[in-house]
User: Fold these one by one.
Assistant:
Number 1:
Amino acid sequence: MNKKNLFTITTELFEYKHKTVAINIEEMHIICNMQIEEMYIMRYNIFIMVKVVMYFKRKVYDKLLEWKKLYSEKYAVLLEGARRVGKSTIAETFAKNEYRSYILIDFSKTTSNILECFDDIGNLNIFFLRLQAETGITLYEHESLIIFGEVQLLPKARQAIKHLVHDGRYSYLETGSLIPIKKNVKDILIPSEEMKLEVYPMDYEEFCDATGNNYGLLQQIYDSGAAIGQATNRKLMRDLRIYMAVGGMPQAVEAYVNGKNFSEIDMVKRQIISLYEEDFKKIDASGRISALYHAIQAQLAKDARKYRITTAIGKRNNTKAEELLYELIDSKTVLPCYNSTNPRVSLTDTKDFDSYKLYLSDTGLFVTLMFIDRPVTENDIYAKLLSDKLPANLGYLYENLVAQMITASGRELYYHTWEKKGSTHYYEVDFLISEGSKINAFEVKSSGAGKHESIREFCRKFSQNISKAYLISQKDAGKEENLLLEPFYLLPFLIK
């Protein structure tokens, strides 16, 4: 009995981890993306040994649905993002659920016969026949999707998108990551028939959905506009700190959902970091991109006004150093936050490309890098982090969390700094976002204690340009004069 026949069975016996339960095989295949490893028939019952592959609901899926409905006839869609953020899983799940059939070509591991198909696409009839013959999958006009995974590894496949889309028989989805896509497009024509969708690590809403936490409750708390009370606030902050510790990389989230301890989850994150470092070395064998990456935490901890390349890699050729920095930014593993020199006008128009900070794209990887000097981060360290008893200044960790949340909303990151008269010190507001013709200002404090001098001075200086000013901390919601106090877990609702 083949797999197709198997999935037509309505209800049979499902054996997994020595347990036997009645289950709808077809539904389980759809829900869990079940991969069949072994099957045998015993009398009238069918017993199946399976490996369950978790799929987490991702917001970009809805954007893919919109693309399919409105744009797929004229454009391919490119899912961009760092390695291991879930692009391939999203693409294949979308293909399974929304199309009659699909062909997945992963250019990082496909066969030479498949690659040869792209040597000549002059006759698309022959091209499609070859793909079907090599994969054993039937394509149906206007009902099939062709996926190009890690498309940056075969530039001519990306160039072919123009002709394939114009042909109109099938839809096309590409994925690309880490090694900058632009590095391999020197001699090809970039297709204008290509839409881009960014894929980030799982945001807090997606994490709550995956772990069974009630994100809708947070919406209700926000809508109420009132303080929730100290006991509930502490519980909700602890829930958020779990997200800070685990992060949004799907593999790490899956490990958490499966009941792995934090040291085991930490090892998953270390493997992802090692993968990033291997890719960095493919771009620059000297290791300088890795040095730029690893220097981010130290520079944030020093509360520097901007990221300094020379501090990370020493005084080298400035042009080459800047090129390496842009390679790092293009990898989507870091989040640049630019100084807006004059927030009275457009933040974009006043972006200072020479004055910026860098954050990590994932809060979980940030925590792991905090303790990367040891072979593994022990469970007790994570326990102290979750209980807010870790003896360290975690303000920069919470800053990184906010940066990740703002980025996940589809916004660029901006901050503002200016000199303090009669002092060697300076004022700084951590994050700015546009709201209509005005801006919202955000100060991030892990404790919420202090005078908050910078944001108050900012409000006085730019009073005509500010819509709202927020202090984001672990404290419950409240208000101090014109400063709105909000806990970290409500931030996503402030930046929608």
Note: The chain has three domains: 3-51, 60-198, 204-494.
Number 2:
Amino acid sequence: MLLLGIDLGSSSVKVSVIDGEKGRAISSASYPPSEMEISAPAPGWAEQDPELWWKNFTLALAACLKPLGTKRKDIGAIGISYQMHGLVVVDKNRKVLRPSIIWCDSRAVETGERAFDRLGKDFCLHHLLNSPGNFTASKLAWVKENEPDIYRQIFKIMLPGDYLAMRLTNEIKTSVSGLSEGIFWDFMRNEISEELLDHYGISPDLLADAVPSFSLQGELTAAVAADLGLTPGIPVSYRAGDQPNNALSLNVLKPGEVATTAGTSGVIYGVTDRTQFDPLSRINTFLHVNHTERLTRLGVLLCINGTGILNSWLKKNTGAGLNYPEMNDLAAAVEPGSDGLIILPFGNGAERMFRNREIGASVHGLNFNIHRQGHLYRAAQEAIAYSFRFGLEIMKETGINPTVIRAGESNMFLSKVFRDVLSSLTSTVITLYNTDGSVGAARGAGIGCGFYRTDEEAFSGLEVTGSSEPDPRLAMIYDARYNEWLDILENHLYE
């Protein structure tokens, strides 16, 4: 059996087909070649047209299926990963009523803050494990307050992945994990939060029926199958937000296991069986993809906005035509510690781990007689590693204390400098794997349709492609440098 995985991001849609028996991708494609448009009708807003997601999915799918020829008939299940926290609203005819308010839109921040104050800190942290913040529920409340004509027409609300599944199957469903992602879930009562819905004046009828992340969730309709060049009746058997799915793709399913990404922003995602919260709301907690009523599996997520975007900014503005491997080579030629050059990488807006403070990026200790390009590139990678250690210290307060961190072979983890610094600084082994979000979604589809009977079967094709282990010499150097960096950071936070 072949398995189809879809990864709906805010920049592009990637599609992969894996050989279920071997667990390896045999074809992949993404679209568009450049980033998808994000519209900003007002400052702090961010919207995308769901029809654009569908169009780019169909184009990516066509490119992915082309080399398969007649083998496409062997595709037996579909899995979906998607950008989290977005809001899609449709009427009774399944017509989208307005552009999707996506994850990076901040219009509902004040709405969530008012809810936090009125529901009370104690209730929110113990029941929701977080502030209502800028999550999907608060975005819906914003529509209710500011666009009442649209709100009155809403039949169902969906997350971005739910919309894609609806287009494929004509079924409107969501997942329990998705409900927790949207801050609709009461973790103490293990049900939808009536208090939150009552506060916002939202009818529970607007929520789609929830299904397990791994389950038969609808079948590809004949009409859509004909348009896509696929066989009718293929089940959609998995859906998950991009970060829980990234964890799944790396076989991070058990308490204590941790997955990381370091693209434009950075994410640390750990699995726990303890219902805990951060009293400062610096982390997010969701029901993980393998959570059940009998088996508590929660995903604890910490996001760092200022990570890889620093590296890409340096490439654009100081690289003079260099590619990332060349930048990494220049960084590797500089001694650890970058001859006293220190960077704060937080120039990508407010940071949740600083309680939504916006402290900006800055360079410290710059010496025009000593420092060159390579110093900037190494100091940047060291700074990103420092920010990950800072984040991990917060995660440890929730009981997650990893000895191994898993990551896909992509973005910042392609740099040996970065991997070695992070490994030594955090006393963890960094292990890289041959996977990505679309491959993980395909693997999830195989679990959901019952093709894989055990985790061992599902992850048999997952291979280690590289690793970094803590270096005691580097650990001594970077412990001292991290404390210097921390002093500078604290001066910025409390000035």
Note: The chain has a mean pLDDT of 95.
Number 3:
Amino acid sequence: MKKYILAIDAGTTSSRAIIFDKKGQEVAIAQYEFEQHFPKEGWVEHDPIEIWHSQKKAIQDVLSKSNINASEINSIGITNQRETTVVWDKNTGTPIHNAIVWQDRRTSNICADLVQKGHAQMIQNKTGLVLDAYFSGTKIQWILDQDINHRKKAEAGELLFGTIDTWLIWNLSNGKYHVTDPSNASRTMLYNIHTLQWDNELLQLIDVPKNILPNVISSSEKIGSIQLEGWDEEIMLSGIAGDQQAALFGQLCFNPGEVKNTYGTGCFCVMNTGNNPVQSKNKMLTTIAWQLDGETTYALEGSVFIGGALIQWLRDGLNLISSAEEIEDLAKSVENNGGVTFISALTGLGAPYWDPNAFGAIMGITRGTKKGHLARAALEAIAMRSREIIIEMEKDAGIQYQGLKVDGGASKNNLLMQIQADLLNTIVIRPKTTETTALGVAFLAGLASGFWTSSKEIETLWEKDIEFIPNQNTESQNTISLWQERISKITTNES
């Protein structure tokens, strides 16, 4: 009997491969970082070939180090950094440009021009997205516009586009499969989340030929078999999901109103809204969570640009701490924030403000301010920005959420999680398995292949690590009041 699922986790800084067993437990992991390229200010690129080679090495190494043969792997799922854009030659497999990463801002002027021409609302109505350089559509346009031959080849059907899931699947299958799933397609700004089709009006507006786009298939579906060098047999590919949607699935947020927040470099908060694509009135993103058994599940998403990165800045920029782990004990050294508010707008503000010109600030400093107060205010800033998003989501969805599920590196900080529970006045739940992104796509792959029989079976596998129960106290209300008063002083837009 085939005993394991292999999850490919293609992240922004590294390629990972993780093996899970029938109980949803991690068996082995292999990881390789790849180079980040910054050719100009605001530009971020990856070498797609390096991504492919590092991912292939991670797959081969995780099997080798675990002494597991390919014949024991039931199926493979792929989750990925989402909006990052690759365009390559259909015949040679050679990228015509480095991958343009989701963080890249080079197409801001293209987006500003579209806004000026009055297209923002139409784009949001069709895609659920705020018109922004974050998404793939304008990145494709930029790449094709670099050389007249690129556009000619694209129109002739000689080029292919894909996000990283598509690029890896194409390489894993030796060019046989050119596919993506709705969770990734919905982040391109070219996909109509209502018709579930590439949208001709958007393609014409952003000047992207339709024949370069991948086929959109279910997030949980038997795609086909692959066989890498050294494998004793083929393995079925059967799951695809963007990383944040995969994490939502891995946290078992299957019902409308259920919410997860990932605390990484930034924070990514996603709420399941069921079969209803909720149009946000509060500057959230409407997106497709997954497509499973012929049903499409939608979600609301809000991003905090600076989450764990704030702690990194305290370490590397201010030398306030020597390691990220020290922040918890330092923050515990004081009873409260001492009246200090840390506005964490170091790279502008994301949802619900979408203010790129907002600036960071530390307010309320006195002669009595200690390092511990700054540390505690920094943790509160991460929690407050997440709180703002979750409250706006709740308004949009008209659903009162019941608890917050958390994951990501910073979720291991117990004090931060307690602060989050207090400020939201809700239970915060951390699972034992923190690799929820990889686990989510493993679940999707295993459901398609029959490794797991149903979502009910999967629900029995999820294990809670700890619940953080909110404390009713005046300190939390004071923190909220000071934050609301002070953040208005640094925003340049009406929120």
Note: Residues 4-243 form a domain with the Nucleotidyltransferase; domain 5 fold (CATH 3.30.420.40).
